Amino acid sequence: MVWFWVLVLFTANLKLGLAHIHGGEQPLAKINILQTTVALHESASISAEPVLLGLKGEDTEWITVNFVNPKPSLDDWVGVFSPAKFDPSACPPVNEQKKQLPYICSAPIKYKYANESSSSYAKTGTASLRFQLINQRADFSFALFSGGLSDPILVAISNPISFTNPKAPLYPRLAQGKSWNEMTVTWTSGYDIDEAVPFVEWGRKGDLQVRSPAGTLTFKQNSMCGSPASTVGWRDPGFIHTSFLKDLWPNFVYMYRMGHLLYNGSVVWSKTYLFKSSPYPGQNSLQRVVIFGDMGKAERDGSNEYSDYQPGSLNTTDQLIRDLDNIDIVFHIGDLTYSNGYISQWDQFTAQVEPIASTVPYMIASGNHERDWPNSGSFYDTPDSGGECGVPAETMFYYPAENKAKFWYSTDYGLFHFCIADSEHDWREGSEQYRFIEQCLASVDRHRQPWLIFSAHRVLGYSSNDWYSQEGAYEEPMGRDGLQKLWQKYKVDIAFYGHVHNYERSCPIYQNQCVNKEKNHYSGTVNGTIHVVVGGAGSHLSKFSQLIPYWSIYRDYDFGFVKLTAFNQSSLLFEYKKSRDGKVYDSFTISRDYKDVLACVHDGCEPTTLAS
Fold first, then answer.
1. Which CATH superfamily is domain 28-163 in?
2. Mainly localized where (predicted)?
């Protein structure tokens, strides 16, 4: 009976911790596309120009859409569909008994309300809209609807438009390989291996270039765990290629471009990109790391009504692009796209972060909006991934995990050692992941890599977010129960989390006790871990509790990210920057020597003997 009530209380706490996920809705989910009725009107029209895109090799183009509706209304809207042709024969029946097929069974990739650019549209029925399109391996058409998003009525369909080479290699994403001197390049194309051979041509800037082969992956509709990913949200993701550039010289600038060798002997090339190889582990030099979570994506053309869902995403992206010369590696710790089962949004996201991810390693972690789905093996039995159950994230990006379905891994960058946990799988003491975390923390040589960083998507440490405060523990249920022993034993400097869409920094803390009274400069022994929530990179913000806990040093209800700067083995600068202006709003420094890491602290002492 006691165990029954323990389970009831835990379930209640878990639901409190999950309640925030309903704070926003994927904009494409508002469209009831399966209920579309067709009422094509001979006096209604819609057209798009230019018809042929990418004539100069561009992978992004602005489109003008002109339309006329003889019966306009305020809730008319224009959807962008890709592929351009609607194919009702491929749709499953809406009504099994009547075998009734919907006219459209795939959601648009974006939409705008018809009156967005013209307040007189409801009177005149004439307007135009501007859309920004990216190359997504298929043609596009535009459809004019009345009836709003809940009861769409198809009024007119435009001419198709397309990029000159829809299959082109695009949107490279760099990531650290399994060794410090290996860089991986992942990209998307429309070429399967029976059409062309993928590879990367690369080398040190100014030297001879070599070619490295690439592997090719994709995923199919039957790989999705549920709707909308397996139904209206499905869109073919193309082919995902990854090449491994090995035996890099430290600190050198390399050039690279992706290629596809066609069977007629010609090569389809991407643009040329540059990256700087990683420093040797322990190298005593300037190294700069950016960390954030929950950025999502947004549309530069204002479509999809994203201002209410991920309003800070573009600001964060643009700040990072502006400061890219001063960034060496990026960690996006979960909730990447918020596609929530609308697969087209993964292309949109990789295009948005391309200026960053093509230049510096873009390391990711798994969040609830990537992985969670009932009865799919995720630790949380929620529908947050929209049926994706981790498949797109595991395929679209490379990360140096031993098993891609188990999203935990370690990686080194110069003076830093990172242990990236997967909060969507069991991390508790005795679990497979717990053993990995201990091994990862124990394996670092703190003389060479003094800065030890732990990260996970959900808050396994401390947060005074309102839903955590309601349950009283200020953490994910069972979050730090077993992990705090490891953080203390191995003297983790900073632990980072997303999930909560704000910024908060704790004091150095162990077992709910602040172990250092300083707020802006820490020196000497490592006797507690600083916990940082940095989930305010783009998605709608999360409220704090009214009560400020004693351990909370700084809280900010705004969009931002963290930058770590290691000057050498003894000096680290921490900065929290707001996305809207890039200015520093919270900071601290750590100064210490190797002997301070070795020093004995409570629950963090090596065994000794009296023997001589």
1. Macroglobulin (MG2) domain (2.60.40.1930)
2. secreted
